[in-house]
Amino acid sequence: MQSLRVKGGAEIRGSVTVSGNKNAALPMIAALLLAEEECVLRNVPDILDVRTMLDIAGELGAEFSFKNHVLKFRCRDIRTTKVSREMCSRNRTSILFAAPLIARCGAAELFPPGGDVIGRRRLDGHFYGLIKLGSAMSGDETYRFHAPGGLFGRELFLDEASVTATEQILIAAVTAKGKTTLYNAAGEPHVQDLAQLLNAMGGRITGAGSNTIEIEGVEKLHGCDYTIAGDHIEAGSFLALAAATGGELTVHGTAPRHNWMLRRVFERLGVAMELYSDRIILPGGQQPKIQCDFGGHIPQISDGPWPQYPSDMMSCSIVAATQCTGTVMFFEKMFESRIYFADRLISMGANAIVCDPHRVVITGKAQLHAVTMSSPDIRAGMAMVIAALCAKGTSTIHSAEVIYRGYENLCAKLTAIGAEIEELRP
Ligand SMILES: CC(=O)N[C@H]1[C@@H](OP(=O)(O)OP(=O)(O)OC[C@H]2O[C@@H](n3ccc(=O)[nH]c3=O)[C@H](O)[C@@H]2O)O[C@H](CO)[C@@H](O)[C@@H]1O
Ligand SMILES: C=C(OP(=O)(O)O)C(=O)O
């Protein structure tokens, strides 16, 4: 177990460049298996989940080098269509190897994926898509797919706009015979980025980013040279840190259009930020006051499928709200266990009422005090780091490796903007 020691109270000031989007890089690594030619991916974040995806791809037959955020990847032949239970359990996107294996070999065998424990995480959309495109599926705890005759495009309608199910279907349909139209598709920036990568490999995908995606199947994909977009969730997390500590921060490397809803939510918290084509600035010296809804009603911040507020931004935003004056309700609609960590904030002195597993009411501004805590998931872990940086005293955060699944070089990036944080070696 890795731990962090965090001293609160330091002034946060400076600039940070975010890494490539974790949730784009991971499905892209699975998608690269579709081509026999060399593919180059740039701006790949060097995080644990990426290493896991590369380990799996390597076992399946890919050869690659990964240095300075550049991944050179080639999979001439698939060596096996099975991914071990242990490998699958290491992250959520291991399940996305199903599509390229079925597409290239007509078979795949996988086990339940891992990933953050933030509530029930359905795979129904993945299986619906693969089966409708022509794969048989058997097994309960082992997922076995067979499509000896290949996959065939068709009309699909997801019962919910699942991010990874949409990605699974994009990867499966891009080389299926005929046209696939996917309704109620997810449109997150990482889904759009994956579609663009597949197009750079010769795919014919239109509509990504909207809720209807059309995919004209092509026979084969070729090599590519593609750069992953910056991580808007990492950007939002650092901006939440600046907002919570009254700091001043410039964030580089994220597209302004990926942060429009973030700006709306921060406006509601009374935090101003400026979006430019090449950077976001959160000016210092703000004393944020939560903005009531029209008529003086307590405002609500809720998450939802893109372009609504990302669920992955909720935890850091809750901590930011503890440092704003006024009252706001957070309604986490997507996951039922994500806001459990609010109990830890209460033990630090936050004025929070946990109404039920989905809703918490925060009244600020509260003086937080240092505690010892453990990171339950990537985003709650980052939220705890932010809370510790606002608190009086020195906090210890255990299970830091969970945070490193999603944040590259966290301590170095935080130290560079003034935070007092160090890794405790076991
Ligand atoms: C590797 C990866 O990319 N992981 C992300 C992906 O996970 P993942 O793809 O697993 O998440 P899904 O999009 O499938 O679903 C997220 C949750 O939202 C619920 N839901 C979803 C769609 C909808 O219209 N209504 C609804 O209630 C689902 O039931 C589920 O509880 O998307 C999540 C939601 O953005 C993010 O938190 C994860 O970081
Ligand atoms: C929930 C997340 O990741 P995963 O789906 O990989 O567990 C996340 O990135 O916040």
TrEMBL record:
Question: What metabolic or biological pathway is this protein involved in?
Answer: Cell wall biogenesis; peptidoglycan biosynthesis
Which residues are listed for phosphoenolpyruvate binding in this entry? K22, N23
Show the catalytic activity: phosphoenolpyruvate + UDP-N-acetyl-alpha-D-glucosamine = UDP-N-acetyl-3-O-(1-carboxyvinyl)-alpha-D-glucosamine + phosphate
Catalytic residues of the enzyme: D116 (proton donor)
Enzyme class name: transferase
Q: Which Gene3D superfamilies match?
A: Enolpyruvate transferase domain (3.65.10.10)
Q: Where does UDP-N-acetyl-alpha-D-glucosamine bind?
A: R92, D312, M334
Q: What SUPFAM superfamilies does this protein's entry cite? A: EPT/RTPC-like
Which GO molecular function annotations are given, in alphabetical order? UDP-N-acetylglucosamine 1-carboxyvinyltransferase activity
Query: Where can this protein be found?
Result: Cytoplasm
A Pfam family found in this protein is: EPSP_synthase
Q: Does the keyword Transferase apply?
A: yes
Q: What is any one GO biological process for this UniProt entry?
A: cell division
| Annotated Enolpyruvate transferase domain residues | 6-414
Matching entries from CDD domains are given as: UdpNAET
Which cellular components does GO assign to this protein? cytoplasm
Enzyme Commission number(s) from the entry: 2.5.1.7
Which UniProt keywords are present, listed alphabetically? Cell cycle, Cell division, Cell shape, Cell wall biogenesis/degradation, Cytoplasm, Peptidoglycan synthesis, Transferase
PANTHER family given in the database record: UDP-N-ACETYLGLUCOSAMINE 1-CARBOXYVINYLTRANSFERASE
Q: What does this protein do?
A: Cell wall formation. Adds enolpyruvyl to UDP-N-acetylglucosamine.
Family membership: Belongs to the EPSP synthase family. MurA subfamily.
- State the protein's name: UDP-N-acetylglucosamine 1-carboxyvinyltransferase
Q: What organism does the record attribute this protein to?
A: Victivallis vadensis
Q: Which gene encodes it?
A: murA
